[in-house]
């Protein structure tokens, strides 16, 4: 487990002495813990997410914090190592240090599910010391479906919502005819494949699904054998939930093989290295979906935030939803007028928030945030639809379609059990 405190020694001693005690309850400091991968094959993803969360926390504090200046947020940092066991150890360490909320999501749905289950047990056994889980990137619909929890809030569109957006686009893209499903061998990868078959099949009954494969997450170094199988199937498109190095290595292998595929993905373009990989492959079209993409037209509020973020952090801004996550928490604390966890959770339910990507709402029945989704494709700069290159390349992002959260909202199997019955 890796923990990197960013406090002066004296301040750290004072805050740790108060952890879990009256001062945290009174609102002098509200601790939230970041638990996501900071080492291993997806460390670059974890560092990106951490930078977004840290920037938002610092900005909230710079503007006075919460509760009309009575409280400041403090971010603790832990390395999940992409492991459910390590994440639960980090959770206990965070609790011991006084955390009242967990920010997570980049470790994958199986890890986040384990964290939510651990939080459920802790909260049941420790009334008055409950904590929340704020999930910015794990998009398993079960987390706001059958496995929903009063203590868990999802600030990203889920798998079904994202696939619905892509299916709507594919419906209008006749050159997609034969589709291969290639995904990581864990819950999210299997769900991305399943929703692909279901929703794309409904939108385009003429599409043929010509093959399917699962591969170990983060362990494949050469995707050439998988690309060979895709080519043998005759596929023109791949529905893949791959992210991080599993996406960039797939692009490289297809480019090396001279295979010009279309890829449909949930968030690959917001991960460092993906645009560079597409430009180096010089083949293939990667279409993905997110709440915003760099260079998106008519997004002045995101542009301003991205500029301020780059000036302070020295990195490119990529994910408004991650920046939004602690801001939603701060808004709920202010709405509740308290840092007491049950009150904050109730304030989050049905919270409407004027975000940089437009109005969003945390649906109370299942704690799923309804936010816009933009279907976009990584493509060469042409001065018209793609005006700015990314990652030092002449490739950027072309907007294909924009959908509101309400347009993509799905039904839910959630049967929420709330405190007090």
Automatic annotation (TrEMBL):
<keyword id="KW-0813">Transport</keyword>
<dbReference type="InterPro" id="IPR051010">
    <property type="entry name" value="BCAA_transport"/>
</dbReference>
<dbReference type="InterPro" id="IPR000709">
    <property type="entry name" value="Leu_Ile_Val-bd"/>
</dbReference>
<dbReference type="InterPro" id="IPR028081">
    <property type="entry name" value="Leu-bd"/>
</dbReference>
<feature type="domain" description="Leucine-binding protein">
    <location>
        <begin position="30"/>
        <end position="369"/>
    </location>
</feature>
<comment type="similarity">
    <text>Belongs to the leucine-binding protein family.</text>
</comment>
<keyword id="KW-0732">Signal</keyword>
<dbReference type="GO" id="GO:0006865">
    <property type="term" value="P:amino acid transport"/>
</dbReference>
<dbReference type="Pfam" id="PF13458">
    <property type="entry name" value="Peripla_BP_6"/>
</dbReference>
<feature type="signal peptide">
    <location>
        <begin position="1"/>
        <end position="24"/>
    </location>
</feature>
<dbReference type="InterPro" id="IPR028082">
    <property type="entry name" value="Peripla_BP_I"/>
</dbReference>
<protein>
    <submittedName>
        <fullName>Amino acid ABC transporter substrate-binding protein</fullName>
    </submittedName>
</protein>
<keyword id="KW-0029">Amino-acid transport</keyword>
């Amino acid at each position: 487990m890796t923990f990197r405190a960013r406090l002066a020694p004296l301040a750290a001693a004072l805050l740790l002495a108060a952890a879990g005690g009256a001062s945290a309850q009174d609102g002098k400091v509200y601790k939230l813990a970041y638990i996501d991968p900071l080492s291993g094959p997806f460390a670059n993803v974890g560092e990106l997410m951490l930078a977004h969360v840290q920037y938002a926390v610092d900005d909230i504090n710079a503007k006075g914090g919460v509760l009309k200046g009575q409280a400041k947020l403090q971010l603790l940092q832990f390395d999940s190592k992409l492991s459910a066991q390590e994440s639960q150890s980090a959770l206990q360490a965070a609790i011991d240090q006084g955390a009242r909320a967990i920010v997570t999501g980049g470790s994958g749905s199986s890890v986040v599910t384990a964290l939510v289950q651990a939080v459920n047990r802790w909260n049941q056994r420790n009334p008055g010391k409950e904590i929340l889980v704020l999930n910015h990137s794990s998009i398993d619909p079960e987390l706001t479906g059958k496995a929903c929890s009063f203590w868990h809030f999802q600030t990203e569109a889920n798998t079904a919502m994202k696939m619905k957006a892509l299916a709507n686009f594919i419906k209008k893209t006749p050159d997609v005819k034969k589709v291969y499903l290639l995904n990581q061998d864990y819950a999210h990868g299997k769900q991305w494949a399943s929703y692909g078959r279901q929703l794309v099949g409904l939108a385009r009954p003429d599409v043929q699904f010509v093959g399917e494969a699962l591969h170990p997450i983060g362990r494949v170094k050469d995707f050439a054998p998988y690309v060979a199988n895709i080519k043998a199937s005759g596929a023109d498109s791949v529905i893949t939930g791959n992210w991080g190095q599993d996406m960039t290595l797939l692009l490289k292998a297809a480019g090396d093989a001279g295979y010009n595929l279309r890829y449909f993905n949930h968030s690959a373009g917001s991960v460092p290295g993906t645009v560079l990989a597409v430009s180096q492959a010089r083949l293939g079209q990667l279409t993905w979906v997110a709440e915003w993409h760099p260079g998106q037209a008519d997004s002045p509020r995101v542009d301003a935030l991205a500029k301020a973020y780059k000036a302070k952090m020295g990195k490119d801004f990529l994910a408004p939803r991650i920046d939004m996550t602690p801001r939603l928490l701060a808004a709920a604390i202010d709405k509740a007028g308290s840092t007491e966890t049950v009150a904050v959770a109730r304030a989050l339910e049905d919270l409407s928030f004027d975000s940089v990507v437009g109005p969003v709402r945390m649906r109370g029945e299942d704690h799923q945030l309804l936010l816009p989704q933009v279907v976009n494709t990584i493509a060469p700069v042409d001065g018209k639809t793609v005006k700015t290159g990314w990652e030092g390349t002449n490739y950027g992002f072309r907007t294909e379609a924009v959908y509101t959260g309400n347009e993509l909202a799905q039904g839910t199997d959630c049967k929420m059990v709330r405190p007090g019955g």
